[in-house]
Amino acid sequence: MKCTRCREPAEVKLRAHNSAFCRSCFVFFFQRRVARAVEHEKMFDRASRILVAVSGGKDSLALWEVLAEEGYTTVGFHLALGIGGYSSRSRERTEAFAAKRGLDLRVHALADEGLGIPDIVSATRRPACSACGTFKRHYFDAAALEFGCDVIATGHNLDDEAARLLGNVLHWQTDHLARQKPVMQPRHEKFVRKVKPLYLTSELETATYSFMRGIDYVVEECPNAAGASQLTYKAVLDRLEDTSPGTKVGFVRDFVVRGSAAFARDEEGDSARTCEGCGMPSFGALCSFCSLRAEVDRKLAARAKPAPTPSNA
Ligand code: Q46
Ligand code: ZN
């Protein structure tokens, strides 16, 4: 197997692109693919200050490395979720990655407030990923504002986007389909644009890039990911990809190019109020983050109340 670009022996075969690459040509291919997504979708430019949401996994660390090497101004932001050993290892890897490359990393640890994801789940009985999503959205938005960033970049890859799209289509979640874009424009002056530069880059490609570049990332999945329907959708898509390479990239790219406009909606008036708790934009008196925190506080307080003593009457 020869490299499609330079004819040297290839190390990786990408069936979806009908190509094979040696190490240096793969790195070139990967970086160019990310750069093209950024330019084509007008995600940001050289003047932008980019908040890169880094989890410690391969996708977000690979993204951060590519953007930093391309000369973009980046600030890494890691939200430590307080999910036991998984979160400690994720934080360690992220901090080591940033230190080794001299990159600017800011960390916010939920456990410092005594409110990790498991505490929220045990207080409210909400699904972990729903609580986690609410917290991530809030802290990413707040961090962009605090650190003067004008765009938030996340490491969602092609496999994530294809699985999400399949789930949204299977349940005809038209609101979610309207929001499934590689670039989400802000709906309030305190919000910034959200972008996914890896939306056409597969998990296999980010894993290969991370391996070739010696990125030491957290391999284990979050314990709460097990059983998530996303994993089932990914497995189905893997089977389709296996028999018909290029299915995932076609599914996601063609949805963005041809399908998403059908679900576009007028978003004016969304988040028009200011949250009385945190000052961020909200639909009601409290944003969803502050409502969730209030619910946790209420339930913990109720739990802490001494049980009523039986009366003698
Ligand atoms: S970190 Fe959070 Fe994921 Fe863990 S609790 Fe669910 S959403 S699975 S990307
Ligand atoms: Zn709030």
- Widest β-sheet, arrangement of strands: 5-4-3-6-8-7
What is the alpha-carbon Rg in Å? Answer: 21 Å
What amount of the residues lies in strands? 5-15%
Ligands, deduplicated: Fe4 H S5, zinc ion
CATH top level label of one domain:
Alpha Beta
Helical fraction equals: 40-55%
Count, helices: 11
Q: Which structural class do the helices and strands define? A: alpha/beta
Shape: globular
End-to-end distance: 88 Å
For CATH, the homologous superfamily of one domain is named as HUPs
Key words describing this protein structure:
single chain; alpha/beta; Rossmann fold; six-stranded mixed β-sheet; two-stranded antiparallel ribbon; 11 helices; 48% helix; binds Fe4 H S5; binds zinc ion
Description:
The protein is an alpha/beta fold. The protein has a domain at 43-216 and 228-270: Rossmann fold. The protein is built from 11 helices and 10 strands. The chain has helices at 23-40, 58-69, 84-101, 117-124, 128-146, 158-170, 174-179, 203-212, 229-243, 247-259, 288-304; strands at residues 12-14, 19-21, 49-53, 73-80, 105-109, 151-153, 183-184, 193-195, 273-274, 281-282. Strands 5-4-3-6-8-7 form a 6-stranded mixed sheet, sandwiched between helices. Strand 3, helix 2 (58-69) and strand 4 (73-80) form a beta-alpha-beta unit. Helix 6 (158-170) packs across helix 10 (247-259). The longest helix is centred in the middle third of the chain and has 19 residues, at 128-146. It is globular. The mean pLDDT is 93. Fe4 H S5 is lined by residues 81, 117, 128-129, 132-133, 222, 224-225.
